[in-house]
Amino acid sequence: MPDSNRISASVTDEDRAAILAAIATIKAKLPFLLSLSPQESREMPRLGAKSMGFDESCATYMNSNPTLVPAFVDVKEVEKDRALRSGLADIVRELSSLGDSAVDTLAVISHELYMADLAFYNNTRQAAKHGIVQAQSVYAALSPRFPGRPTAKLAPVAPSS
User: Fold this and answer.
1) Residue 73: what are its φ and ψ, rounded to 5°?
2) N or C: more exposed end of the chain, with fewer CB within 10 A?
3) What is the mean pLDDT of residues 33-58?
4) What does DSSP assign to residue 33?
């Protein structure tokens, strides 16, 4: 395991509680956040980086040509949404970066755990093949995780005296 132990850290119960409280505070400060279904997200047109200039032009023209704004468009709400988008974009960028790092770190931790588990399992399998009594019961308990693989023929266990 040449890349083992890339992460050697811990989170205290107090830190975990403080982090979860901070996340709860963030959620409380953003009570308007929505959750879209995957279909809603796919079907919804939205401004992207290429459309920001178009939006800025529309903002200018809406203000200078109010008679062209449709009656159902509330310009004050549009302006409020523009301001919210700008501020929320900064928050989302930071949260996304933090979330990506947390997900990547969790992936490395999971990898390290699984590699250690596989090393233990393979060592136990070899020990069971060589008739080590305690290894045989451990191997028997763990081997169902790999049902498609042939099981090792274990030597009969002689009762210990």
Assistant:
1) -95, 115
2) C
3) 92
4) -
131-155: pLDDT as tens digits: 998 999 999 999 999 887 555 565 5
- Domain parsing of the chain, residue ranges: 48-145
Residues in the chain: 161
Residue 110 near residue 7 (C-beta atoms within 8 A): no
DSSP assignment letter at 70? -
| Per-position DSSP letters for 71-138, written without gaps between them | TT--HHHHHHHHHHHHHHHHHHHHHHHHHHHHHHHHHHHHHHHHHHHHHHHHHHHHHHHTT-HHHHHH
pLDDT surpasses 90 at 161 = no
